[in-house]
Amino acid sequence: MSNEKRSKDGLITFVLNNKALLLMLIMFLVCSMISPYFMTFSNIRNVLRQISTSCVLAFGYTCIFSSANIDLSVGYYVGLLGVLSALLDTRTSLPFALIVVITVVVGIFCGMLNAAIGLVIKLPMFIVTLSMGQIYKGVCYVISNNSPVSGISESFKFLGQGYIGFIPFPVLVMAVFGLIVYILLNKTIFGRQAIASGGNKVTARLAGININKTTLLVYLISGIGCAVTALMLTGRAASAQVTAGQGMEMDAIAAVVIGGTPMKGGKAKVVGTFFGVLLIGLLSNVLNLLGIDSNYQYILKGVMILIAMTLDKVSETYFNNQLKKAVEK
Fold it and tell me: Which of 66, 173, 209, 257 is a good FRET partner for 194, with 20 to 30 A between their CA atoms?
């Protein structure tokens, strides 16, 4: 009976720890049965290309959630960074490589500014980033005159449309950025400190971890992710849309939580985040293949976010109960 219970507990633990992978596999099978075009190489490659921007953003968001922080402004400053980079590309003679560097530096500044304001004023990051999002949105509208910026260079377009062999360039960028974030969170002192500060800030501070420095660094990484996302989005659309990034934070939150990184921090699952983004991407792809009105995608994404939060709560309750039982023994 004891072995049976241990096996049952082990199965439940595996499912809760790998819910993104299991849900993605179920979605993959369903999509394969619904549409005969789904399993084609070109469609799978297209799905990966489409999710690459969301995935880069979500990888950065994984750092934020692992440290028990939040950023509701990322979608807005993705739009701002896209417009800024497009304006620099179309209205100056700066080398494109320098434009990329400037965009990344501004992305880092935006991320660290969010963190600094919250740390100095000691306001919840929810309030700070909600407010900053509106500021970034306003700045974006002002510098763009509330109009798209078109006529970008071929080098810019390559970021979102180019191929290295048969592999889309954005997919390679996604893979490299995801690997870097995985190493940072799982193989470095910074990663252990970020996760520890997310698990229990008081204990982390007593252990000598500089919470403020760690918070600044996770927002810095997220800022880099936002800059890379903005560049690829603009290159893919061949223009900078002022509303390009709005709403992306919701997809990121859903993907990260489904992937196994809880909003309360203390854990980071970068690979799970990838599967979470892929799950959302597969959902959008099969709806497009079936010719279903894209407006229904918003409804389904909302449902998916609710499911993600519910699964997160179930996981937290289950593991807390297991820990309590272990302590009592």
Answer: 173
